[in-house]
Amino acid sequence: MFRDVLGSARNTVISPFKYLINLADTPVITLIYHRVTTLPSDPEMLAVSPENFRAQMRYLKDTVQLVRLESNWRDVSGPAVAVTFDDGYADNVLEALPILEEVGIPATFFISTGTIGSRSEFWWHELEHLILETHCLPASFTLEDEYFGRSWPTGDLKARQEFYLALVDLMTNSDVMQRSKWLVQLRRWAQSGVVDPEKNRIMTADELLRLAESPWVTIGAHTVTHTRLSSLPPDAQREEIIESKTYLERLLGREITMFSYPFGKRSHYSAETVSLCREAGFTKAAANFPGQSHRWTDPYQIPRHLVRNWPIAVFTKKLREFWTR
Q1: What are the backbone dihedrals phi and psi of residue 115, each rounded to the nearest 5 degrees, phi first?
Q2: Nearest C-alpha neighbor of 304 from the set 255, 260, 270, 258
Q3: Alpha carbons 188 and 282: distance in angstroms, whole number
Q4: Residue 12 pLDDT greater than 70, yes or no
Q5: Of the candidates 316, 324, 300, 92, which has an alpha carbon nearest to the alpha carbon of residue 204?
Q6: Rg value, the chain, Cα
Q7: DSSP 89
Q8: Is 33 exposed, middle or buried (0-12, 13-18, 19+ CB in 10 A)?
């Protein structure tokens, strides 16, 4: 079966070492999605169109076994795929869920609880609006901050794109209070207009309940404020982890045993974070770096492959690479 998944040898490059490992213990590949919708702009490349998502799910259904993240993967024989979503966008319920149910694909949805039911966007979408979508901006922006203060030119699109990426990097590595102060400065600078309330909407509590009712869905926690945990002291990390778990358990009336780290690169959490997740009662935690899960993989550092808005021909090629690299 592993050879079938890989496709012909002519189209697949695999090291002898990796090939032997995968023959000895065929891996589980975990995919990470964020959104299923069509957007006029998507600088973070988080959205997969419904058409491409349906084709991707049908391909998985026809070619590999699908497993739940929470299941015991030691019992899995042969290559398998787990599907996950991060963050908690409304389109997860409105557009992704019907396709998952139609095709018959189990999926885990990791929910950042602090914005559930609010009209607030995640901060990266507000940055997109303020910097990339606002017309007639000043020619430069100066960030007033004792440690991170500096100026950026913003006079043309290329400069704005570089400015946007620089602030995404800064804010990814900051805490909520710091981000909030910077956003106040940006709003004042941009004098921004009204934002489309539906474009990047987070799901409501009722929508989360509807999502959780599906037999194809597992709900996991994803902190309260979607802050890089390694930037926080241990007590603040514990609060982010425990409060997101507690909110979901109270709302859904069930134990929450799955967790994913915001952003999820190895630098975005620490050994202490892993210990806190174990202490909180989670049985698995998902990261966001590529790799395969074997019997020996740390269940608190499950690697995942990020899926983009790929047409099916690209998706199948990428999936073969996920098995072999």
Answers
A1: -110, 5
A2: 260
A3: 41
A4: no
A5: 92
A6: 20
A7: B
A8: buried
**Mean pLDDT calculated for residue range 299-314:** 98
Measured CA to CA, the distance from residue 153 to residue 14 in angstroms comes to 45
pLDDT at 36 over 80: yes
Of 288, 234, 292, 296, which is closest to residue 261 (Cα–Cα)? 288
Higher pLDDT, 76 or 211: 211
What are φ and ψ of residue 74, in 5° steps?
-65, -20
- DSSP for 216-270? TEEEEE--SS---GGGS-HHHHHHHHHHHHHHHHHHHSS---EEE-SS-SGGGS-
Spell out a b/e string for 68-77, using b for 16 or more CB atoms within 10 Å of the CB, else e.
bbeeebeebe
Q: Look up tokens 């989670």; give the residue.
A: 282
Domains of the chain are 2-118+201-324 (3.20.20.370), 123-190 (no CATH)
Cβ atoms of residues 173 and 147 within 8 Å: no
Phi-psi region of 156 (alpha: psi -120 to 50; beta: other; left: phi over 0): beta
Q: What integer pLDDT is reported at residue 6 of this predicted model?
A: 45
Tokens of 25: 């213990």
- Residue for token pair 């599906």: 214
Tokens linked to 9: 């040898």
Q: Is the pLDDT of residue 206 over 90?
A: yes
Stretch 209-223: mean pLDDT: 98
Query: Cα–Cα distance between 313 and 153 in angstroms, integer?
Result: 40
Residue 228 has pLDDT above 90, yes or no: yes
Query: Is there a contact between 91 and 37 (Cβ–Cβ < 8 Å)?
Result: yes
Amino acid at 209: L
Q: Are 303 and 264 in contact (CB under 8 A)?
A: no
Closest CA to 35 of 20, 21, 17, 53: 53
